Amino acid sequence: MAEVNLTVKKLKEKFMNSILEGTTFRNEVTVTVSKGEIFEICKFLHSDPDLQYRLLTDLCGLDFFPQTPRFGVVYLLYSLKSNQRLRVKTRVGERESIPSVESIWKVANWYEREVYDLLGITFDNHPDLRRIMLWDGYEGHPLRKDYPTEGPDFDKPFVPEV
Amino acid sequence: MTINMGPQHPATHGVLRIVLELDGEVIVRSTPHLGHLHRGIEKLAESKTYHQAIPLTDRLDYTNAMGNNLAYVLAVEKLLGIQVPKRARYIRVMMAELQRIAAHLIWLGTHALDIGAMTPLLYTFREREDVLRIFEEVAGGRLTPTYLRIGGVSKDFPEGIGEKVKAFVQTFPDHIKEYETLLTKNIIWLKRTKGVGIISKEDAISFGVTGPTLRGFGVKYDVRKAFPYSSYEDFDFDIPIGSVGDVYDRYVVRLREMEWSNSIVEQALERLPRGPVLANDPRITLPPKDDVLMDIASLIRQFKIVSEGFRPPAGEVYASVEASKGELGFYLVSDGSNHPFRFRIRTPSFANLSALSKMIEGRLIADVISVIGSIDIVLGEVDR
Question: In Å, how far is A58's CA from the nearest CA of chain B?
């Protein structure tokens, strides 16, 4: 735990105004940060010699409809050096965008495309932000809470013209 | 010239489509297109109770169903904070490792077939059949057994299964030698795999590559050792690693891994403790079937759990296992209701596949086939 506390401590020292909360649930450490400095925070976590969170295990989005700000973005990081995981969470509003971390971890390219595709959160400075699972021209974002599970066209199947 | 490879191409191991821009026979740029197998499992699971989502996980990486079940039930158990009996943990380890062997056997057979060696496929599917027969007897299913339950496993081992598992683990090392005589020093195999698909170790980590593909680069990261789960700390095993990370290294890593898996199954079988195979927590686990038929309290409990499920505390957990392809993790967010608020699946194939373009650009078309085979993707878990 000392190592993780080190992470939280270092973050709080460096980004005093952006770190909103640090919690532990079932031995997992979650740091909630504000969106403004998310890129700088990720960059710091990745390259600080004591931390070295080099593996972005996962990046996903959450929909808190009907709360505001509506969306959340979650980064799950892993440090090969200290064998620690860290979860970084931030909130994004409905018509807002969030900086892309593609230049820090290359895998974020696809993860962010997936979040964009299924939840409709846009990422700034992403080199290739297009849908990944669904086809171009698809309307709506299925993982949103106000999107029906059975699909909006459940009773009217769409047959494309040949 | 631009050519389209897939989605109906036998060497893409499913419905992957790659658009290749070529200069002669050299690939200048490649663009993978995913989603042909997107079934919306994450969305679907949000409307189901925690028990009901188990069969969905079988269908992610359908070559590694037991491992997928394990990752999911571990996540739910972590969320609930319940303990699983030791016998169930050992049975889970045995099943997960047998499944790893079966998954690697599919990989070996099809990978060799892609490169042009047809014989290994016939050999590996022979041994895979033995594993599936064991699954059939234990769980009742072969490809999608849905054997694990939240809190344990669905039923105890049937009579006489120990001898069958023992017979398998005793003969399997000889079969690995058999595969090796066909491939390891085969000159065509070496020419198609040595020095192919190399990227730097830093790039591999940056692309989120995990599993045998990452270990081929010489990075010793295995979830079974880094975050031991389900009593893996009780067993002696090593993590095989490669050196340069070419297709050949990944091949060697997976072969050694099968030997270690075999050894883990053997150890677990020898030390298999007696006792219950399902935690006794009346809020969560189903009562024994005999009780349901005999007394009204168990019947009511069964009805409540099946129809309504249970309500874990609000919170979020991430639990992962070392699946056959890499780190498979479930990130569950609970809002205290009887179905998950967010059901996120971190699949190894998705991240591993994102490194494909980097591995094949500047190389020949023929190398695409060996690289796709070596990163061992299953589109069922790429697209979810």
Answer: 6
Fold of B38-381: Cytochrome-c3 Hydrogenase; chain B (1.10.645)
Q: Which fold has domain A2-97?
A: Beta Polymerase; domain 2 (3.30.460)
Of A30, A87, A132, the CB nearest to B35: A132
Give ipTM to 2 decimals. Answer: 0.86
Location of structure tokens 């959160």: A121
Burial of B230 (0-12, 13-18, 19+ CB in 10 A): buried
Residue A4 confidence (pLDDT)? 56
Does A106 touch chain B if contact means CB atoms closer than 8 Å?
yes
- Could you say which DSSP state residue A136 is in? T
What whole-number distance in Å separates Cα of residue B5 and Cα of residue B350? 18
- Which residues of chain B have a CB within 8 Å of the CB of A149? 43-44, 46-47
- At B75-128, the pLDDT tens digits run 999 999 898 999 999 999 999 999 999 999 999 999 998 888 888 999 999 999
C-beta atoms of A133 and B34 within 8 A: yes
* B242 pLDDT more than 70: yes
